[in-house]
Design brief:
The structure is a single chain. The protein is an alpha+beta fold. The chain contains 4 helices and 8 strands. The strands form 4 sheets. The chain has a two-stranded antiparallel ribbon with strand order 1-4.
Length: about 150
Protein backbone atom coordinates (compact mmCIF):
# COMPACT_ATOMS: atom_id res chain seq x y z
CA UNK A 1 0.00 0.00 0.00
CA UNK A 2 3.04 2.32 0.15
CA UNK A 3 2.87 2.95 -3.59
CA UNK A 4 -0.85 3.72 -3.45
CA UNK A 5 -0.19 6.02 -0.49
CA UNK A 6 2.48 7.83 -2.54
CA UNK A 7 0.14 8.09 -5.55
CA UNK A 8 -2.58 9.73 -3.44
CA UNK A 9 -0.16 12.13 -1.75
CA UNK A 10 1.36 13.15 -5.09
CA UNK A 11 -2.11 13.66 -6.58
CA UNK A 12 -3.03 15.92 -3.70
CA UNK A 13 0.30 17.75 -3.86
CA UNK A 14 0.06 18.45 -7.57
CA UNK A 15 -3.62 19.44 -7.62
CA UNK A 16 -5.20 19.90 -4.21
CA UNK A 17 -8.63 21.26 -3.39
CA UNK A 18 -7.46 24.76 -2.50
CA UNK A 19 -4.57 27.08 -3.28
CA UNK A 20 -4.32 28.30 0.33
CA UNK A 21 -4.68 26.66 3.73
CA UNK A 22 -4.31 27.30 7.46
CA UNK A 23 -6.87 30.10 7.24
CA UNK A 24 -6.85 32.13 10.43
CA UNK A 25 -8.24 35.44 11.64
CA UNK A 26 -6.26 37.57 14.12
CA UNK A 27 -8.31 37.99 17.30
CA UNK A 28 -5.96 40.71 18.56
CA UNK A 29 -3.11 42.84 17.25
CA UNK A 30 0.08 40.79 16.88
CA UNK A 31 3.68 41.69 16.05
CA UNK A 32 6.10 38.97 14.89
CA UNK A 33 9.72 38.97 16.07
CA UNK A 34 10.81 40.39 12.67
CA UNK A 35 8.51 43.40 13.18
CA UNK A 36 5.69 42.28 10.89
CA UNK A 37 2.45 43.65 12.32
CA UNK A 38 -0.92 41.88 11.96
CA UNK A 39 -3.89 44.05 13.04
CA UNK A 40 -6.89 42.55 14.82
CA UNK A 41 -9.46 41.18 12.35
CA UNK A 42 -6.91 40.44 9.60
CA UNK A 43 -7.32 37.12 7.78
CA UNK A 44 -4.10 35.27 7.02
CA UNK A 45 -3.42 32.08 5.06
CA UNK A 46 -0.53 29.85 4.03
CA UNK A 47 0.09 29.52 0.27
CA UNK A 48 -0.13 25.72 0.06
CA UNK A 49 -0.22 25.50 -3.76
CA UNK A 50 2.89 27.68 -4.03
CA UNK A 51 4.69 25.48 -1.49
CA UNK A 52 3.63 22.30 -3.29
CA UNK A 53 5.06 23.64 -6.57
CA UNK A 54 8.29 25.09 -5.14
CA UNK A 55 11.46 23.80 -6.86
CA UNK A 56 13.42 24.33 -3.63
CA UNK A 57 11.19 21.74 -1.92
CA UNK A 58 10.24 19.30 -4.70
CA UNK A 59 12.33 18.22 -7.67
CA UNK A 60 10.35 18.75 -10.92
CA UNK A 61 7.38 20.12 -8.93
CA UNK A 62 5.07 20.58 -11.94
CA UNK A 63 5.33 16.98 -13.12
CA UNK A 64 3.32 14.08 -11.72
CA UNK A 65 5.57 11.43 -10.19
CA UNK A 66 3.25 8.85 -8.58
CA UNK A 67 6.14 7.27 -6.65
CA UNK A 68 7.80 10.53 -5.51
CA UNK A 69 6.98 9.91 -1.84
CA UNK A 70 7.47 6.14 -2.10
CA UNK A 71 11.09 6.73 -3.15
CA UNK A 72 11.61 9.19 -0.29
CA UNK A 73 10.09 6.73 2.20
CA UNK A 74 12.61 4.08 1.10
CA UNK A 75 15.43 6.22 2.56
CA UNK A 76 16.58 5.58 6.15
CA UNK A 77 14.51 7.39 8.76
CA UNK A 78 11.88 8.64 6.29
CA UNK A 79 9.35 5.78 6.41
CA UNK A 80 6.58 7.57 8.35
CA UNK A 81 7.30 11.24 7.68
CA UNK A 82 6.10 11.09 4.07
CA UNK A 83 2.84 9.15 4.44
CA UNK A 84 -0.31 10.52 2.81
CA UNK A 85 -1.85 11.56 6.15
CA UNK A 86 1.38 13.06 7.53
CA UNK A 87 1.67 16.83 7.76
CA UNK A 88 4.72 19.07 7.51
CA UNK A 89 5.55 22.69 6.76
CA UNK A 90 6.07 21.64 3.11
CA UNK A 91 2.85 19.60 2.74
CA UNK A 92 -0.29 21.31 3.99
CA UNK A 93 -3.49 19.76 2.54
CA UNK A 94 -4.53 18.58 6.00
CA UNK A 95 -3.21 21.63 7.83
CA UNK A 96 -0.37 21.31 10.31
CA UNK A 97 0.36 21.29 14.00
CA UNK A 98 -2.25 20.97 16.73
CA UNK A 99 -5.04 22.09 14.40
CA UNK A 100 -4.30 19.54 11.64
CA UNK A 101 -7.37 17.69 10.38
CA UNK A 102 -8.19 14.92 12.87
CA UNK A 103 -10.07 12.97 10.17
CA UNK A 104 -7.10 12.73 7.79
CA UNK A 105 -6.28 9.15 8.84
CA UNK A 106 -9.86 8.01 8.23
CA UNK A 107 -9.95 9.89 4.90
CA UNK A 108 -6.68 8.24 3.83
CA UNK A 109 -7.99 4.75 4.62
CA UNK A 110 -11.29 5.41 2.82
CA UNK A 111 -9.53 6.74 -0.29
CA UNK A 112 -7.14 3.78 -0.38
CA UNK A 113 -9.99 1.28 0.01
CA UNK A 114 -12.10 2.98 -2.64
CA UNK A 115 -9.27 3.30 -5.15
CA UNK A 116 -8.14 -0.30 -4.56
CA UNK A 117 -11.69 -1.49 -5.25
CA UNK A 118 -11.92 0.54 -8.47
CA UNK A 119 -8.51 -0.67 -9.72
CA UNK A 120 -9.32 -4.31 -8.95
CA UNK A 121 -12.88 -4.24 -10.33
CA UNK A 122 -12.84 -1.93 -13.36
CA UNK A 123 -10.89 -0.78 -16.37
CA UNK A 124 -11.01 3.02 -16.38
CA UNK A 125 -9.93 5.46 -19.08
CA UNK A 126 -10.63 9.01 -20.13
CA UNK A 127 -12.96 9.66 -23.04
CA UNK A 128 -11.09 9.14 -26.32
CA UNK A 129 -7.81 8.81 -24.37
CA UNK A 130 -7.68 12.56 -23.84
CA UNK A 131 -5.39 14.15 -21.29
CA UNK A 132 -6.60 14.93 -17.79
CA UNK A 133 -9.23 17.71 -17.84
CA UNK A 134 -8.23 21.08 -16.44
CA UNK A 135 -9.61 21.97 -13.02
CA UNK A 136 -11.90 24.89 -12.31
CA UNK A 137 -10.63 27.64 -10.04
CA UNK A 138 -13.12 29.64 -8.02
CA UNK A 139 -11.25 31.99 -5.70
CA UNK A 140 -8.86 29.80 -3.71
CA UNK A 141 -10.96 26.66 -4.38
CA UNK A 142 -9.89 24.10 -6.99
CA UNK A 143 -12.51 21.71 -8.37
CA UNK A 144 -12.64 18.95 -10.97
CA UNK A 145 -14.45 19.83 -14.21
CA UNK A 146 -17.86 18.24 -13.66
CA UNK A 147 -18.38 17.95 -17.44
CA UNK A 148 -15.42 15.60 -17.84
CA UNK A 149 -16.35 12.11 -19.00
CA UNK A 150 -14.65 8.75 -18.97
CA UNK A 151 -15.33 5.09 -19.56
CA UNK A 152 -15.59 2.24 -17.08
Amino acid sequence: MHKLDSFLKESQRLMGVTSVTLMRKALKDFTFSDGTFIPKGTSIVAPSEALHHDEKIYQNPHSFDPFRFYKIREQDGESTRHQFASTSLEYLPFGHGKHACPGRFFAALELKSMLAHIVMSYDVKLEDNKTRPQCWRIGPAIAVDSRATGYV
